[in-house]
Amino acid sequence: MPSTRVRAVLAAVAALLTLAGCSQEDRGRAPDTARTPSYGPSPRPAPGPWGRDRVVSADCVKGGRFTAVSVRSWDPNGWKPVAERSFDVPASVVFWQEPGREAVLTPLFDLCRENPSDAVYTSDALERVVPRVRAVFDRDFTRMAVVLRTPDGKGTHVGFVDEKGLTDLTARDGRAGAGRREQNAVFAPDGSRVWFTYETPDGRARIGSRAVTGSAALRDEGPAAAANLPLVVLDGPPRAVQAEMVHVSPDGRRTTASAEDLGQVLLDVPARSTALTGAAARAESLGECLHAVGWAGPDRLLCRTRAGTFRTFGTAPGAAPGPVLAAAGGGGSEGLVVSPDGSRFVLVEHPPGDPYAGFRGFRVAGTAPGAPSAKVPAEALNGQSLLLEWR
User: Fold this and answer.
1) Which residues lie below 8 Å from residue 326, measured CB to CB, with a gap of 6+?
2) Of 117, 124, 125, which is closest to residue 97 (Cα–Cα)?
3) Which residues, in sequence order, are CB contacts of 7 under 8 Å at separation 6+?
4) DSSP letter at 334?
5) pLDDT digits (tens, 9 = 90+) for 177-186
6) Residues of the chain whose pLDDT is less than 70?
7) Helix (H) or strand (E) holding 221
8) How open is the CA angle 67-93-248, to the nearest 5 degrees?
9) Measuring CA to CA, how many Å separate 318 from each of 298, 299, 313?
10) What pTM does this model have?
């Protein structure tokens, strides 16, 4: 566990991040530092094609005149697809970096871009990419949040795509000035609102949301960081966390989070939307845990380490890291999703040091020392497929 001095440094850094995005009214609110047992864990999905014990993948499908995102549900016991949905991506939706135009923050870049240099977030590590892309869908993968460029190219709107097509929520608002750099569009788990970061007329970064039904009026949700950090909306009373690698613990009380210059930390789940506000209270450094993959138990995290190996890290006071999981591959692997019971996870194998240099397939490995691993035989999955969730 970190020393008192390390804890103090982490708290100071997180506090500065928070104050940078806070307005005067935000600073007057009560701090959201208390643990809140009433939030509880996220509900398990019901049985069905998109329900329990299913692995969900996403692919960006491009043709001569169309682009679509294909989402599939897989049975991990035989790795056969059991359901599929397709989301058409109209030309107005931002999914690649147009030459000569200002970069737009949207997780669809992670899924659809072809050029590594088109990255808009700080890292391409798949442990970071998976939570970013998962957040654009609602709980049951029926809607996908998107960012759109305005016709004059001077602003960005937010909206969503479902089986009926594209809905531009910002345009539905209709108020003057709507659409000033609305980006980072993601869904609330229940699919009721699209959340995003936006810029106020006086240049402040904020978190906002718009309802998918009704007038879609902008509702301010709290301070945002003026940085290229993604957004994730938590379950329970909906609130957003602007950070990388957000994984809420099984009991719903704690979450992992990461930001540039802060590293991977563990903190209490914040009571309201924030850009790492909760880290100012009880941030704990996770040391050699470079990239959090997910929770392997109530008090144990699965991580990829700075050495490129996988091991679990205890989050209880005095807990020691587990041994290296040798069956999970070496420095050419990245972690994707963890099973609901925490006993298994899926990783992707590629040549060490360069994920774009080749693809060696997916593998299921155990989170316990000595657990066997096995190749995923699904031929439909390829190097462009991204596994988003093990439900």
Assistant:
1) none
2) 117
3) 283, 284, 285
4) E
5) 666 789 999 9
6) 1-42, 116-117, 176-179, 277-283, 327-331, 352-358
7) strand 219-223
8) 95
9) 15, 12, 11
10) 0.87
Contact 73/53 with Cβ under 8 angstroms?
no
**CA quadruple 268, 270, 276, 279: dihedral, nearest 10:** -30
Mark 192-205 as b/e (b = at least 16 C-beta within 10 Å): ebbbbbbbeeeeeb
Nearest Cα to 361, choosing from 79, 137, 54, 113? 79
pLDDT at 14: 40
How far apart CA 84 and CA 356 sit, in angstroms, is 27
Residue 120: predicted pLDDT: 85
Nearest in space to 314 (alpha carbons), one of 289, 335, 331, 348:
289
Token pair of 281 as six digits: 């209270």
Helices H, strands E: what count in the chain? 6, 24
Please answer whether residues 168 and 148 qualify as being in contact, where contact means their C-beta atoms are separated by less than 8 angstroms.
Answer: yes
At 176 the pLDDT is 59
- The one-letter code for the residue type at 237 is P
> Closest by alpha carbon to 205, among 105, 124, 69?
105
- Asked if 270 and 279 count as a contact pair (C-beta separation under 8 A), the reply is no
